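dumping this here so i dont lose it
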């Protein structure tokens, strides 16, 4: 049986579907990414978003500020974009340079254009299982599990990592699918005991090969969200080669969750566009 959850192939399929759909629109959807500073990893991520938008027919705008920009200038730009009827998605690229509080900037994004699903209104709607724009990586993980007919209902899902971008929204998505959810983090005692109980283990902490073979049970589904750069290579949070033997399904790094995150961003932009253009 094929064990690999292939996010790369699925993301291509989703992008092709979106491309076909966007061709029927009178006006192209538009995503605007706001960047503060010149973080190297952020530059790479933004370029991949630009490329994906161009492939599917979404307008891409990149607003870049230096790391000394006044917060008010950024907030005023967000307000301007909120009012622009031709902008469907607004994304503040994270992390921000020291001295900036992301929450105090994100809160100005109109929730209907919040394609990262990070405003308090978006988070609240997700917790209450209401229609909203959901954070892209958790959404991509759920879509990947659905593609391979992996049921969440009744399963014990263990999430390692409690970030606002991945862990917390993923917890809500899994609960909304009737999973039993345990969230672990840096203060969790005896992590190995808990991860061994997981039917589905999702790891998103940014710690190279944190999860080893002895930390998972036989036939566990393993989702690795980690992106760790070392020795000119990319590693996940899971010791892939050894855990592979015990897992029923596993995501590779790269080629697993990463491409799904970008695909879900595009889906969120189109969803936002359609909510404003109800004739489509």
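and the seq i came up w/
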């Amino acid at each position: 049986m094929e064990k690999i959850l292939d996010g790369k192939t699925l993301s291509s399929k989703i992008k092709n579907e979106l491309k076909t759909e966007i061709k029927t629109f009178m006006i192209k959807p538009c995503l605007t990414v706001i960047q503060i500073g010149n973080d190297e990893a952020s530059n790479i991520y933004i370029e991949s978003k630009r490329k994906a938008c161009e492939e599917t027919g979404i307008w891409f705008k990149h607003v870049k500020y230096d790391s000394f920009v006044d917060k008010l200038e950024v907030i005023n730009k967000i307000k301007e974009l909120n009012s622009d009827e031709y902008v469907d998605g607004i994304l503040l690229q994270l992390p921000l340079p020291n001295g900036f509080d992301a929450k105090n900037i994100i809160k100005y994004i109109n929730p209907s254009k919040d394609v990262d699903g990070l405003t308090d209104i978006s988070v609240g709607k997700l917790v209450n299982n209401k229609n909203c724009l959901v954070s892209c990586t958790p959404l991509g993980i759920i879509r990947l599990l659905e593609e391979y007919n992996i049921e969440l209902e009744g399963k014990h899902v263990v999430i390692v990592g409690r970030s606002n971008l991945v862990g917390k929204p993923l917890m809500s998505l899994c609960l909304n699918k009737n999973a039993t959810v345990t969230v672990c983090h840096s203060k969790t005692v005896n992590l190995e005991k808990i991860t061994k109980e997981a039917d589905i283990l999702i790891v998103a902490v940014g710690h190279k090969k944190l999860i080893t073979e002895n930390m998972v049970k036989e036939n566990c589904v393993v989702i690795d969200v980690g992106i760790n750069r070392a020795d000119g290579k990319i590693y996940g949070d899971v010791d892939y080669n050894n855990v592979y033997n015990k897992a029923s399904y596993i995501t590779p790094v790269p080629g697993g969750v990463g491409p799904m995150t970008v695909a879900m961003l595009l889906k969120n932009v189109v969803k936002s566009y359609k909510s404003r253009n109800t004739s489509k």
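The chain has two domains: 26-110, 136-257.
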